[in-house]
């Protein structure tokens, strides 16, 4: 990942970098890798996330159909 510093404005470049890292999911991955997660816990977490994504998609679809 690359961020250019313009006019010696390091603060703005840092903000852009943080935004890019967050969009890529680096912070989430760092948090998950901080501690070991059992495979069964990982499956349960991913399953719960899939269910919530499906419910959100259903809500959006129902709202669009109104």
From TrEMBL:
GO terms for biological process: translation. Residues 37-48 have a biased composition (Basic and acidic residues). Keywords: Ribonucleoprotein, Ribosomal protein. Gene3D superfamilies: Ribosomal protein S8. InterPro entries: Ribosomal_bS21, Ribosomal_bS21_sf. Coiled coil: none annotated. It comes from the Bacteria. One of its GO terms (molecular function) is structural constituent of ribosome. Residues 37-66 are annotated as: Disordered. GO terms for cellular component: ribonucleoprotein complex; ribosome. Belongs to the bacterial ribosomal protein bS21 family. This is Small ribosomal subunit protein bS21. It comes from Sphingomonas xinjiangensis.
């Amino acid at each position: 990942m690359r961020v250019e510093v313009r006019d010696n404005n390091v603060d703005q470049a840092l903000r852009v970098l943080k935004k890019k890292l967050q969009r890529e999911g680096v912070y989430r991955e760092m948090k998950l890798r901080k501690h070991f997660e059992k495979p069964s816990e990982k499956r349960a977490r991913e399953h719960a996330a899939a269910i919530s994504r499906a419910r959100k998609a259903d809500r959006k679809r129902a709202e669009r159909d109104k």
